[in-house]
Amino acid sequence: MKKIIILLLFTALLSGCMDKFLKVEPIDFLDGNKFYQTEAQFDLAVNGAYSNLRSLYAGSMWSMGEMRSDNTTYQYNADDRSGADNEQIDEFRMNATSGTSSDCWSTSYNAIAKCNTILNRISEKTFEKKDRFIGEAHFLRAFYYFNLVRFFGGVPLITKEVSSSSEAFDLDVRASVDDVYKLIISDLEVAVKNLPVSCNASELGRATQGAANAVLAEVYMTLHQFDKAIPKLQSIISSGKYILLPDYASVFDINNENNAESIFEIQYIEGTSGQYSNFMYTFVPYNSGTEIIPNGVDAGTGSGWNIPTQDMLDAYEKGDLRKAASLDTTFIDPNNEKMVPYIIKYSSTHASRYETGNNFPAIRYADVLLMMAECLNETAYSANGQAATLINQVRSRAGLQPSMNLSSQADFRTAIAHERQVELAFEDHRWFDLLRTGKAKEVMAAHGEREKSLKPETVSSSSYSTIKLLYPIPSYQIQINPKLKQNEEYTANN
Amino acid sequence: MKKKYQNRTGGRYAWLRKLLMVMKLTFLLILISTMFVCAEVYSQTAKLNLDYKDISIGKLLQQIEEQTEFRFAYSKSRLNPETRVSIDVKNENIEQVLKTILDKENLSYQIIDRYVVISDKSVPEQSQSEQSQKKVSGKVTDTAGLSLPGVSVVVKGTSNGNITDANGNYSLTKVPNDGILIFSFVGMKSQEISVAGKTVLNAVMKEEAVGIDEVVAIGYGTMGRGEITASINKVDTHNIEKLTVTSTDQALSGQVAGVQVTQATGAPGSGSVIRIRGAGSIGAGDNPLYVVDGFPLPDSYDKNQNPFAAINPNDIESISILKDASATAIYGSRGANGVILITTKRAKEGTSKIEVSAYGGVQYVPQHGRLKMMNASEFAQWRTEYRYEKAAAEGRTFDPNEIPTEYIKPAALGKGTDWYDACLQVAPIQNVNLSIFNGTKKAKSIFSVGYLDQKGTVMNTGYSRLSLRANIDYNVSDKLLLGVNINPVFNKWKYEETEGHYESSILTTALLLSPLIPVYQPDGSLTSHVTSTDTFDSGNPVNILKNTKNNTDELRLILNGFVEYKPIKNLTVKSTYNIDTRRNQNDYFAPSYIGAMRNPPPQPASGSLSTSKTYDWLLENTVDYQLKINDHKFSALGVMSLQKNDYSSSYLSGTGFPDDIVQTLNAATRTSGSTSAQTWSMVSYIGRLNYNYKDKYLLTGTIRADGCSRFGANNKFGTFPSASLGWRISNEKFIPKTNWLSDLKLRLSYGLSGNNDIGNYNQIPQIVASNYNLSGVVVSGKTLSGIANQNLGWEVSKQFDAGLDFILFDGRINLILDYYHRLTEDMLCDIDIPSSSGYGSILTNLGKIRNKGFEFSVSSKNIEKGLLKWNTDFNISFNRNKVLNMGPIETIYAGQDYISSNVTKVGHPMGMFNGYQFVKLFDTQAEIDAVAHYPDQIPGSAQYVDTNKDGEISEADKTIIGDPHPDFTFGLTNRFAYKNFDLSFLLTGSYGNQVMAVYEISTMNLDGVFNVEKRVADRWKSPTDRGNGKIASCADFTFLDREGNSRMVYDASYIRIQNINLGYNLKTSLFEKLRLYCSVQNVWTFTKYPGNNPEVSYFANDNSLSPGVDYTGYPLSRIVTFGVNVTF
Questions:
Q1: Do A158 and B779 touch (CB under 8 A)?
Q2: What value, to the nearest 5°, has the Cα angle with vertex B879 and ends B873 and B885?
Q3: pTM of the shown model
């Protein structure tokens, strides 16, 4: 009996420490409730918010921002139809189940959530780098939203940390395009105020005041508020931080990354750290074998994308140095004996297969100069004025004669559009430029006709039939939350 | 910080360490003592102290049995145990005591060693002298042929008797020629056999009225079948031991109503999917809890690695399946999906025997059920016709010169290569077991060793298991019992990628390769590339199989130790400590020269090494008290239990091997690695009360409170009560005693049980790496990986059960009927949330699923007498599953691999098939234009139903196109014995279930990049040549045919002859028992399903949301074995 009592006592004693016994601390990860406390931790969190840029630009941006435009297309691969999604994007045949646009959606929103969490949790804290973190989080949030609003239209506007599933459903309704731009502008204004003018040499790739001003200027231009864009661009130009490099090709040289022309660059490094780009592999002909990349390329879904179109090849003026620095026209497809051009802006020698380290230029000084020229022309056309000087600065580096005596605002507008097409080719600007200048439908319809006549065997009759300006909201998002409405162009009766 | 924590732990659990140490010592002592145990001679000088007034003789004898080692045998007809006597003796010997009691009753007795035989005095012994008298001897066995020690054998009407010895032998002298021998034994029917002049008289004892007195494991104890009020099925090993299966899950197939055993794959060493009363959970597991000798093993179901692999089927004594909440509530938070209790063999007192069993055989994949792929000439023919049809559809005239040379003369190509067959082999299987039983009053032990080696029917696959077991019980005194089970197991698996679609499965690749290419080159080397014009370039599957290394080794050790103490009468206190520890290592290497589908060699070689370590311990203290007051019988149980599980794993991988010769990772030029660790803990308090009034009214109440580390701070503890009621109607006076109704019991139960089968840290928001790089250098980044749910709690299952147990015709027919209604609520479910939140999903409690059903099982002894014996077991179950509510989500898509094959919607059963509904093939452009269609469809392409009536065919038109759930499943076993022969066969079946043959995405792919099924020849070629009307024109783009659609859904009802076993029992004096047999496993499957296995489940690990999906997998083999069982 005594023993039973002892046993019972043991049991009673144990109940006291059961809570401890049941409290199991995680071993191989950090507890989120205990993170976001110190400056170092916020530093890590901000790095995390940048990291989505890497997957966004290597994943969906080249397809949605460049291949959809008249600049590039794809090399038809009869053996492998699994990349049909990107072909549909190229030829305006896409539907809402597209994996590419769904990737863009979720990658962007994942990054926005990171920014929201940082902003939510940093407010109570005080430490030295707080301002910079606030600036970066606002910049990045605006940057991601700016892509989203141009791709999808008015998207759900999430500006706070979502903390429950019901909140996630409640907030998932589309805001107006205006409201999205309001947020982008106010975010960028906060960013301009808080970001440093430049980063130190060990942190190249972080956002700066210049980057925020450039994005803000492009936002204003997209809203056709050219007068508001001018001071932003002017402050970049007069900051004296940036120059045009003398040689166009050196802008993209892997040994010259984050150079003086670079304003905001998506960062990649070669090798196994998971930080690589593989633009080079994605953009070569799928059947080029070891001919182009010495390390060898596999035929398949990975390659044959973002192939320059005939329109693009034709866009280069004779003697334009940028053509040879941007693309190559020496590969002959063994299947049909036709030349297949391919992009070389992101090519480099490298040791590790697939895992190249070329950065992607999101904003560079030439872009700023051309934006400035565009704004000046839109606000007040003046023949051979400052706008012309700017455009000629870009042209002369390309080894071209100045384009003088553009006789009207409209001619100048065309000249800028053309200059941007070749100067910024394959840098994911073309589709947005077409949208901003209102030329998308006209240019793409004409381009479509040309493509069909050039490649009747692969471009189907239904291609380019309706030039849709927006991407569809990913269908799965609507499936799980019917409150989210589809873009009209993609609803049943369209 | 870390140090401090450890100190704290050390202080608080020092008692535990101490206990552990004591137990370790105990184990050692037991081990040593058992080695020296020898049978003792029982002293006749045993002294008795008895003081009872007005006690029944039966009770008194029982008291003596408890005090001493004497055992009494008496024929019930001679001695009325209810007769009341009084006795008061001190330090008397047994003879004196017996005299005092028995003289009055006119009874005499005889003491033989420790056995006392009581008989009637009235028959004068002298009268026998006139008759001729002689010696009679013989052997007593049970129906299974096992010898029975301790059976009392008495000459009727005399006190002349004896007890069978350890080998079941007896001998009696002075037996009259016309005498009658009475054989009696507890739990067996007494028998009277006339001597009729014979000198050798053997007897076979039969169990008394099957069922009622059967002892059944119920979770934390055992109970007589008659007293059970819950829905519990017992499977005895003698029912399944003749199925030569490699693991026990396969043996359960078709044995128990309500238990669906699905053999999802044929890979050696793989695990079956077991569902008890349907699937009730969306996000947490649906696997039952496995409890081995009282130890709930940590949940470990994996399609590749079987939870039963730890246990040699040969070591299993019985399996109890707890189905309703009254039975499972005692396992609380882990009982919701039912519980499988496994009891391993222990030695009985007085036994000493050695059992050896061995079998060997061959396994092969039957031709029946293989997909019929085109041979070389058919393939070339198709590739030629394809070109004509394509041209016709495009309005071109076809130039025959465009036909590639290799296809020009189809007929000359002959059969070519059957790649699938080339990957298969006839494979040997062998199994050897040795068990040694030894039981004395003091110590009972069993030692067993088993070795199984099963080569796979797919090249370079296989499974082997070496298992050892020692179960030892040691009686320190009448009050103190110690026990230990030691069970080390070494498992080895050899895998190849055999499951899935062509990109991951070598077997599927093999089906799809060009039959024009030979396996071997003329020089005898393996062909490295397999491709013809049009087809994808691939590696050679035979090369891949032969040269890919993917081996897993596992060492598992299960230890149980217990101390049982009976301080006072009817009170038992027990403490058990259990350990399950596992070390697992997988070694993988794919050399550069093998390649794969669409990635022909050379490919960079890759290798990996992954290890895992699990350490799980359970400490349980149990108090059990029995009380009987007149007609009221109570028993109460209290348990306190602590369990903790630590798991860690590592993964190392390498690429850039300079050659394929050195395959260890030190040779790799690039390596990466990671490790991880997890832990969970659980605290439980358990109580159970049984009440029995006159064996008529039975009541059981159970409650368990579980706390688990896996749940949110706000919901750590869950309480699971249940109650059940039994009414032995046949014991009522108003039920007349008839010959046919031996027993009838009504059972009713209701209760709750839970499910905690989710990850270990889901309630904690995780910070994960999210790195970036700046200035060319990696910078660490961190981010939240999801939204935490502090309210995360148990999933609760509420179950009502009503059952009727009949025993008819004196135990010859045993019938069980059950109806159940099980509601699973607050389901643990990972729901997808809008991506705009930044996250993809969140684990939450929501929704409701109902399973209701009916189960019927009968076992019948059709013929019992004479040379021929025949008995039959049959069971059938009907389960209906329905999702009643899923909170904010309307639809869950699952089975995502190539397509999304399954969908779960409110108002339907879980995991229905998802896809387009096929209508017909369009014949003309006008037909296409008239209805909803996909852009650019041409005549000869498939028309699908425009489900949402929006005028076009799109993803949104996918709908429910099939039901993977059977209307009913059944099992039928027949056993025959004729003279020395025995024969048994087992049929299992399922009716009304469908399977979605998703592999048709590839095997019916009309692009021409693969070989295809023969029936593609029956495709649509023109409006007048429509083929079978289901296979589209190959001139079409094939996108729509490669989407999930109703043409892929097949009726998979089946009846399978699971096993036939024919044995011959040899009678020889050398062995106690010797049986030779031949067994065939997976004899034949009658089904309309075109694939090899109508039970297939590619997503077996997520079977509830995506059942019945076939991507082609490891085929089921037919296994033919010959074996021998010897007991001596």
A1: no
A2: 160
A3: 0.77
